[in-house]
Every structure is written in C-alpha cells, then in structure tokens.
Specification:
Elements: E1 2-5, E2 8-11, H1 12-36, H2 44-51, H3 55-71, H4 83-107, H5 115-139, E3 147-152, H6 156-162, H7 167-170, E4 173-179, H8 200-206, E5 211-214, H9 225-233, E6 237-240, H10 241-249, H11 259-264, H12 272-308, E7 315-321, E8 327-333, H13 357-364, H14 372-378, E9 382-384, H15 391-400, E10 413-415, H16 417-421, H17 428-444, H18 447-463
Parallel strand pairs: 3-4, 3-5, 5-6, 9-10
Antiparallel strand pairs: 1-2, 7-8
Helix pairs in contact: 1-3, 1-5, 3-4, 3-18, 4-5, 12-13, 12-14
Length: 468
C-alpha cells in the first residue's frame, strides 16, 4: 500500500516509520526533562508550571528531527544503506538538527530548551531511531503493508510489471498473478498465469485481491468492462498500467506511455498560483543559499586561481536549453581544463581526465553548481527542475527518445527529482532513465514537492551521491 505525501507516492510502511520516529523524538524530550530535573512523570504538570508548556517544544523538536532525517534520505524508498550507513546518516541528521534547534531557540526564547535536556533528548532519539530501523528492516518485507495486485493481461505491457526487480519498486505490493486477455501473446512467466474462469470478481475474492491493474496490449478487443465494473463496485481498485507504474516506481515509463494519458490524466498543472509559488521559492532559496555560500564561493575562486594561475578563468559559461526550448548561458565554476572541449562537445566520463584537482573536489561537493544561483535570480532556471542539457545533445536525444522535448515544459533546475533518484549519467540510456523521473516531476510538481526535493538534496550534497 502506498500513501501520497508532498507529491511522492511512498510505501505506507515508511509513513508508519516516520510517525513512530516522530513519537520517539517527542517522548525522548519528555524523558530528558524528567531525568534532567529529577522529576517523576506524574509530577510533570507541576514542573510545566515553572518551565512553561512542554508540548510546543516537543512538537518543534520532533518536526526538526523528522525533516533532518528526511534530508539524509532516511525516508526514501530507494535507501539501500546498510546498518553502518544508517548510523552515519542518523548521527549526521541529529547533529544538523541540534544546530537548527539552537538557532530556533535563540530566535524564539519561548521554545528554549536547556542544553542538558537537549543533549539527553538527542541521545535518546538516536538510540530510539536506530532501534526502530532494526525493527523496520525486519518487518518491511512482511505482507501487512502490501496491496495484493492482480494484473489483467499477460502480454508485452503486462511484462513491464513482471520486470520490476528493485525492492523499492516492489515494496508497496504483492503480485498475485496475471490473467490473460483474449488471445494476446504471452510474455510473462507461465507459472504466474491464472485462469479467471470468466468471473474476474470471483477470482479477486478467492485470492483476496485489493487491486486489478489493466495491462492489455490491445484494449480494442475483449475489454472486460463488466468484470472490471463488478470488481470496482465490490471494493477492488482498478488501475491503468501506466498510473500503477508511476505510483510504484516514482517515474513515468516512456515505453508504455501514450499521449492520451498525458492529455486526460491528472497533473501537468502550470496555473498562475503554481508559477508564483515556484518563483517565490526560487528567490527566497537563492538569497538564503547565496548568503550562506559566499565564503565557500570565495575560497573556490582562490583555489582555482592557485591551481591554474592568476589569469585562469574562474567561471565557465555554457549554452543550455531551457523553458520552451530557449537557449541560455548557464554559469558554473570551471572544473575542467580550459582546453577540455577543443574537439567539440562530449559527455562527461567517470574519472574524466579533463577534470582538474580542484574541479574534482568541487564537483564531488556540488560547489561547481553554486554560480547557477544567478541563473535562478535572472529567471533562466528554477531551483527545482530537470537538469538543462546542451543544444547539441538535446537535438540528438530528441530524435532518439520519445517525449524528450516535453522536459522543456518547465524551467530547468539546479537540483531535481531525477538527481535524487538516479545517479549521474552521461549516455543515451542514462538520458532515457532520467527523462522518466523528469516527466514524473513535471506531472506532480507542486510547492510541497519542491520543498521535499530541496530538503532531500542535502543527502546528495553532504554525502556526495551521484557526483562525477
């Protein structure tokens, strides 16, 4: 089962985990207060008369901790870190939370926490979160949170469900089997094929199916209107294949995409309110990031000059394709040799020999992207959106990849959904994979989704994920 939060379809198990850890954080604060002031829980109301209400402090503390855990990818369905990796992320998240809380308590004295209380609360929270993760790792694969899915169809389209291999894509459902649609050629494992005996609803009741996914290769022949209607009225969800894949994988599958789904389906909204909220987020985030990163940018300028000489250029301007296919010049700190493209445009490669020593470091930390803040302020880019590509590559990819030009229906971004979900890519296949995540963002983008992506980008920056 999946729940929709901030524009993302997440497994219900992660929602339960987030609620449990928010409760752990709040209880940790109460426990810390009781221990620090040597007060039994029954006498807590008397203590609150002296210190002030604790629940606003507990709520603030829980929210900050939850946001910081989210920023380090601990509520991502694609998180594959082992226990040691989880420990590192939890510790880093709580350290950041401590700093943020200190700033909040300074600005809002009414929410002030005592240093001893905060230290104890952070320790209790860390232990509780790690324990919850151990329990979650054992329980997540149980079927209690999963929808039981029956696929109507056994051909090429239905095979796209059978080919879902990643555990994150299969976490929200349990595949019951496939019911052949008419005489279509079968492309799914024969042992997974079921016979509905002409009564689809009865089969769903027998197998305790909660959702039927319609994945017919040809709907013009033998479409089971009556059977699907009976299932729907009996409380079984009926879902189109593309919508199901979008929900479970967090991307729009280009191989089964048809224009009518984009035209008549939900999403793809670009109303004036959405455009206004996006621009306000861009300007606010730009000013904040610029204020925080000015010392880092100054050090980067010095490092580039020291490595390549006083006369070496610091910034690198490159033509990129933006909103509506219009070309603009994107700004970056130069991370390659000045003669890097003397032979023409080419994809970046793993351990690219053209990258300088300073360039390798600023790429890993994503510092090379900071000058793009000025592109955001000028309106060429947004903070969140598909990464802009070079005109030479766009022309080539648009000829080979269907729907590629649709990614230019929104402004390109410094970070985005594709960057969170897919590692750095430099090939035609990588471009196809990232397009599917970009289309998901374009379809589902809203202010809260943008903020969620912005928060989760912290994991990419601080842990160097996907850098090349």
């Amino acid at each position: 089962m999946r729940i929709r939060i901030l524009g993302q379809n997440l497994p219900a198990s992660l929602g339960v985990l987030a609620l449990a850890e928010a409760l752990i954080a709040a209880l940790s604060l109460y426990a810390a207060v009781c221990i620090r002031f040597e007060t039994p829980l029954s006498h807590l109301p008397l203590l609150e008369n002296q210190l002030g209400a604790l629940w606003p402090r507990a709520l603030t503390y829980s929210v900050i901790v939850l946001v910081c855990l989210m920023a380090f990818g601990l509520y991502s369905a694609r998180q594959r870190a082992q226990l040691s990796g989880v420990l590192v992320r939890v510790v880093a998240a709580l350290l950041i939370a401590t700093a943020v809380l200190a700033a909040i308590f300074y600005l809002v004295p009414q929410l002030q926490l005592w240093r001893g209380v905060e230290a104890l609360a952070v320790i209790f929270t860390g232990c509780g979160v790690v324990l919850s993760r151990v329990v979650f790792a054992r329980a997540v694969d149980q079927d209690i949170f999963k929808r039981r899915v029956l696929v109507y169809g056994a051909g090429t389209a239905a095979a796209s469900v059978a080919r879902l291999r990643r555990s994150s894509d299969r976490r929200g459902f349990q595949l019951v089997g496939f019911v052949p649609a008419g005489d279509e050629a079968r492309s799914v494992p024969e042992e997974r094929v079921l016979d509905d005996g002409g009564d689809l609803r009865a089969l769903c009741e027998e197998l305790n199916v909660t959702e039927v996914v319609v994945a017919m290769d040809d709907r013009r022949r033998g479409f089971p209107i009556r059977g699907l209607l009976e299932c729907r009225l009996a409380g079984v969800d009926v879902t189109e294949l593309l919508t199901f894949l979008e929900r479970e994988t967090g991307r729009v599958r280009v191989d089964v995409l048809n224009p009518s789904w984009m035209i008549f389906g939900q999403g793809f909204r670009r109303d004036p309110l959405r455009l206004f909220s996006s621009r306000m987020l861009d300007l606010g985030a730009s000013m904040l990031v610029l204020a925080v990163s000015l010392p880092v940018m100054a050090l980067t300028v010095i490092a580039i000059k020291v490595e390549d000489g006083p006369g070496a250029p610091v910034l690198y301007s490159q033509r990129r394709v933006g909103l509506g296919g219009r070309v603009f010049n994107v700004l970056k700190f130069r991370s390659m040799r000045t003669d890097a493209e003397s032979n023409g445009a080419q994809w970046a490669a793993q351990s690219d020999p053209r990258v300088t020593r300073v360039g390798a470091l600023i790429r890993k930390l994503r510092i090379d992207e900071l000058p793009q803040i000025f592109n955001v302020v000028r309106g060429h880019m947004s903070f969140i959106g598909p990464r802009p590509e070079r005109p030479e590559f766009v022309q080539e990819l648009a000829e080979k990849i269907p729907y590629y030009v649709q990614r230019h229906s929104v402004k390109p971004g410094i970070t985005g959904w594709a960057q969170l979900c897919y590692p750095y890519g430099s090939s035609e296949q990588d471009a196809l994979e990232k397009l599917q995540y970009d289309l998901y963002y374009i379809k589902n983008n809203n202010l809260l989704f943008d903020i969620a992506i912005l928060v989760q980008t912290a994991e990419v920056v601080l842990l160097g994920k996907g850098a090349r």
